[in-house]
Specification:
The strands form 3 sheets. An 8-stranded mixed sheet has the order 4-1-8-7-11-10-9-13. The protein is α+β, with helices and mostly antiparallel strands. The longest helix has 12 residues. The chain has a single domain, classed as M1 Pyruvate Kinase, Domain 3 (Beta Barrel).
Length: about 200
């Protein structure tokens, strides 16, 4: 279990080409890697997230309880295959494509529990909840069913709260100390899907 990449983004205006080209929204979902296994460098983590990262709407991403968004590298091949099948575009997504701050390996929604504590470098983080995708993710993926698919397949990723500020970088191992193990991120996905139905 380790950090594959650290990704940050700036708030930008987008046209929603899926729902309505005239609709404009602000988002920092378009993130790029600033530390990867090929070019690892330390980055400061504050109680509000990675240094240099921005959020357009802290009610859905940001603030203390959703300071960092983690997404598994293991899901990248699924989305690349889906994109090729559904919109006939072959693409290799770069780190941060899903709006995540931390691209991680060795952990998925099945293994991650609300209340888990992560120790990375000298930081301490706590898993808080799944990511609930919205129309911005559809627009980012150029696919109208992307958000729904993310929940249906339990490939949502999850948010983390920063308990102790510090410095992390790509390649850092993730030490996990499980909390009460009452609710996994997969279980949260299942509950959200049932609620939508």
């Amino acid at each position: 279990m380790k950090i594959i990449a650290l990704n940050i983004g700036k708030v930008t205006e987008y046209n929603d080409l899926i729902a309505s080209p005239a609709k404009v929204f602000k988002s920092a979902i378009d993130k790029s890697s600033v530390s990867s296994l090929d070019n690892s460098r330390p980055l400061r983590v504050s109680y509000l997230g990675l240094y240099g990262d921005e959020q357009a709407d802290s009610s859905v991403h940001g603030g203390c309880d959703k300071a960092l968004y983690a997404y598994p590298l293991e899901h990248y091949s699924f989305w690349e295959g889906l994109t090729e099948k559904e919109i006939q575009i072959k693409v290799n997504f770069s780190f941060g494509h899903f709006g995540e701050n931390l691209t991680v390996s060795g952990l998925t929604e099945h293994d991650v529990w609300v209340g888990d504590t992560w120790f990375i470098g000298d930081t301490e983080l706590r898993v808080t909840k799944l990511r609930e995708p919205c129309f911005k993710f559809n627009a980012k993926m150029s696919y109208s069913k992307a958000a729904k698919t993310m929940i249906q397949t339990a490939k949502s990723g999850w948010y983390l709260k920063v308990l102790k500020e510090g410095t992390i970088q790509a390649g850092d191992p993730i030490k996990v100390v499980h909390g009460p193990k009452k609710m996994s991120i997969k279980s949260q996905n299942d509950l959200l899907l049932a609620k939508e139905k």
